Structures are given as structure tokens and as C-alpha cells.
Amino acid sequence: MKLLNAFPKYHKQNVVSHYCPGCGHGIVHRLVAELLEEMDLGKRTVCVNPAGCAVLAYKYLDIDMLESAHGRGTAMATGIKRVRPDLFVFTYQGDGDLAAIGTAETIHSANRGEHICVIFINNAVYGMTGGQMAPTTLLGMKTTTSPGGRNPRFEGYPLHITDVVASFPGVVYAERVAVNGPAAVQKTKKAIRTAFQCQVDGQGYSIIEVLSPCPTNWKKTPKESFEWVSEVMMKEFPLGVLTDKRGGGA
Ligand SMILES: Cc1ncc(C[n+]2csc(CCOP(=O)(O)OP(=O)(O)O)c2C)c(N)n1
Ligand code: SF4
């Protein structure tokens, strides 16, 4: 029997995934690989990957990748894109990376309207280091550092950082999507395509926030995690386009 090649061109084959069953990272990697092939970008792409569970993304994506210090992804991407504007540059970052330690880099690169794309994986926890509370942790959500549930009196409220940067004039496109089912995955692909196209067209900064399951740290099965994204997480972080200034719109 002839096996069909299930891998897009820029997704490495014959590698064993280190991601937990039901994790959203692998789904997004696959979409990125498909789009780099479909949009003919792979040969001139540099991805800046984070400290976090996606630290090993270079094991799966067959493109040029650089590892940034935790949170500094958009600073590094800024340097690469300014020195080599012919390259296609995107960062891939978790919520701890992008919205906690990397807050300054995120805010200022977006405010400068750098010509980069940001893929922001929001799984509401610090996944790699054992499920500590992240800025995006939901109110009442139990994590290893909020064992009684996140209490706004002491830990503040879930940070909607994509909404914050969407308000900046230099942010051309911002959308929140999810990867908790086939239809949602297709919408995520469409959103990432739009963000990538913004850079190809020289339009400026784009960011796609992806609500992404972390079954291990949520202490749920993959199925329960997918349901939790729609039933709980989307109530705090509604999906949709947060800004679309392509062609100079508001
Ligand atoms: C300067 C620095 N501080 C802390 C760490 C430890 N650290 C590694 S990954 C991580 C959190 C990752 O969480 P997130 O960005 O949400 O990504 P996820 O693992 O959930 O995909 C932390 C705190 C580090 N590597 N470097
Ligand atoms: S800990 Fe969470 S984010 Fe990390 S690989 Fe496992 S499911 Fe994915």
C-alpha cells in the first residue's frame, strides 16, 4: 500500500512530537507549514521561537528559526526584519512569553508598527514550567501558583493584550481564533493567512491570538479541554477580528 505524504513541504517528517496529546501547538505548527508552502514563503522565512513548550518548534518546521530569550521575540524579529526587509519574519509565542516577561517588547514593537507577524498561543497558563498562573489565566482558575483559583483582589484580571495592541495605529490586523475543532482550525488558518499577507503586502504589524488547549496543565482530557475552550475560555476571550486597518481602514 502506498502511503500518502501527510506532511506539507516545510513540516519535517519522521519526528516524534514532544507535545502532549490534545495540545494546540502541533495544530498551529501544521497550519503554519501549510501556509508557508501555499504562499510560497518558506525559503525566505525566519521564525523567532520562544522559551516555552514551543521551544523545540525547530524540530518540526523546516525553515530558518532563531531562539529568542524568554519574551524578547518581537525585539529580535524587529532587528531581523529591519536589516533584511526582504525576509518574511514571524514570532511564535506563548502567553507567558508574550504577555508577561515580554510585555514591553510586545507593546513597543506593536506601537512602532514593525513589519512582522506575531502568532500568540494563549493557553491560559505557563505550560512548559508546570502550569503556573499566566496573565491570561481566567478568574477562579486553579493553577500551581493560584491553588485557590485566580483572585482578582491579589492577582488582577485576565490580560487582554491583543485588544490592547489592536488599538495602536501601527497594528494593521489583529484577530482572536481557536483550534478546538475542525471548523475552528480552518478559521485559524484563514486568520494566519491574512496576517501573513499583511507583511507580504508591506502593510505592517499583525497578530493572531490562538486559544489553544493545554490538557496536561488544565488537568483535563483532550476532549474536555476542547470543550472548555468553547464553553469557558471564549466567554473571557471572545473570538473575532479586533482590528483591520488593511488599506488604511480604522
Ligand atoms: C528569563 C527566563 N525566565 C524564566 C524562564 C522559565 N520559563 C521557561 S518557559 C516559561 C513559561 C512558558 O509559558 P508560555 O509562554 O505561556 O508558553 P507555553 O509553555 O504555555 O507554550 C518560563 C517561565 C526562562 N526560560 N527564562
Ligand atoms: S504542557 Fe500544555 S502547552 Fe505544553 S505540550 Fe503539554 S499540553 Fe502543550
In short:
The protein is of the alpha/beta class and 250 residues long.
How many domains comprise the coordinates?
1
Structural class, from helix and strand content?
A: alpha/beta
Please give the share of residues in helix. 25-40%
* Main β-sheet, spatial strand arrangement: 2-1-3-4-8-7-9
CATH architecture: 3-Layer(aba) Sandwich
General form: globular
Average per-residue pLDDT, rounded, comes to 96
Rg over alpha carbons: 17 Å
CATH fold topology: Rossmann fold
Distance between the termini: 54 Å
> Could you state the order of secondary-structure elements as H and E?
HEEHEHHEEEHHEHEHHE
Which percent range describes the beta-strand content? 15-25%
Count, helices: 9
Low-confidence stretches: none
Give the biggest sheet. 7 strands, mixed
Tell me the total number of β-strands.
9
Bound ions, cofactors and other small molecules, one mention each: thiamine diphosphate, iron/sulfur cluster
CATH homologous superfamily label: Thiamin diphosphate (ThDP)-binding fold, Pyr/PP domains
Just give the CATH class. Alpha Beta
Description:
This protein is of the alpha/beta class. The protein has a single domain, classed as Rossmann fold. It has nine helices and nine strands. Strands 2-1-3-4-8-7-9 form a seven-stranded mixed β-sheet, with helices on both faces. The protein has a two-stranded antiparallel ribbon with strand order 5-6. The chain is globular, with a radius of gyration of 17 Å. The N and C termini lie far apart (54 Å). The relative contact order is 0.15. Thiamine diphosphate binds next to α3 and β5. The site of iron/sulfur cluster has 12 residues, from α8.
